[in-house]
Design goal:
The longest helix is centred in the last third of the chain and has 7 residues. The protein is built from 3 helices and 10 strands. Strands 1, 2, 3, 4, 5, 6, 7, 8, 9 and 10 form a 10-stranded antiparallel sheet that branches. The protein is mainly beta and about 150 residues long.
Length: about 150
Amino acid sequence: MRSTVFELLGDWRLCATTSGFFDSPRIDSAALAFSEVSGARVRMDVRFLRAGRIHEIVGMVDTRPGKSGLFKWRGRGARLIVAQGWWGVRVSTDSQLALLRYPGTWMSGAGAVLLARADVESRTLESLTAARAGELGLSSMEITTLGWRR
């Protein structure tokens, strides 16, 4: 079962990725924050360290998926021309983990991003992810390909 964008409200940290933009070893300490703007949109703030500098991406996420089941994201400023559609949003039943799947764009490849709430201990992430794999829609093969961010 897919989750809604509203289940993402609050603060998250990037824990692991299969590929795509956040797979770069130059990107560190990524955090995402989701806040409700209106019933139709949620604001997404992404902050990360790259080459020692803090970068921020601000975007809006439609709260209703499109015909294909994707939640559409649109950035601000120069990133306005980049629309990123996620294959889906899955949040664990305890709301501690979330998996965002995306098909990729001309700027980044397809992949999945695993997020955790701030109070989830780093040392338990891998075992917690394995235990919640079914809820998140992760296959055993995908778990083995996750690139963990420490």
